[in-house]
Structures are given as C-alpha cells and as structure tokens.
Amino acid sequence: MIPCRTCTLPADDPDGQHPACAEHERERVAAVPCSRCGSWTSHRVLDTDPAVCSHCRTDDALREADTARAQLPPPPAVKPRPAPPVYRVGTGGDKIAEWVKS
To answer: How is the chain classified by DSSP, letter by letter?
Structure first.
C-alpha cells in the first residue's frame, strides 16, 4: 500500500500517480470554471494550469501534435508505375492489342 505524501495514512489512489489519503485528496480536487471556455469542471488541481478543463487541455495537445506534424519534411515523391506491356497473341490478339493501345 502506498502511503499518502502528506501524512502516513494509506493512499486512496489506485494507480499511485497522486498518492494521497481521502482527506488530502479532497483538498486536491476542485470545482472551478475553466479559464478558456468557462465550463465548470471538477478535476485534480494541477501544478501547471489548474483553471483549464480537460477538454481545453486535449485541444491544446491536438494543436501541438498538428504543429509538430506540419514541421515534418514532406514524404518522398512516389514514382509512377510504368504502363504494363501489351502482348500480341495470334490474329485475335492483334485486334485487342490495337484496341488497348488506342
């Protein structure tokens, strides 16, 4: 069992990323309006930007990924495949071959 980072009680967080007991976990969870879209959200208070909801953080991550993708060099040009050869087989094939060529 992982202990709380503030006291010695066992942490309630099953994944162990935010080890805190129930009392200290309530202090970390806040219901605040998002500073960008204004929607009320209840989330863990983050050290980086606690007033941004998860939707806006996801939009930021997608925007950063698009920017990084735009900075990649273009893919190499694909050479066109050559046309398949036209085979003549017998007299009937001559007419078909001429038809395929035109």
So the answer is: -PBPSSSSSBP--SSSSS---HHHHHHHEEEEE-TTT--EEEEEPPSS-TTS-HHHHHHHHHHHHHHHHHTSPPPPPPPPPPPPPPP--HHHHHHHHHHHH-
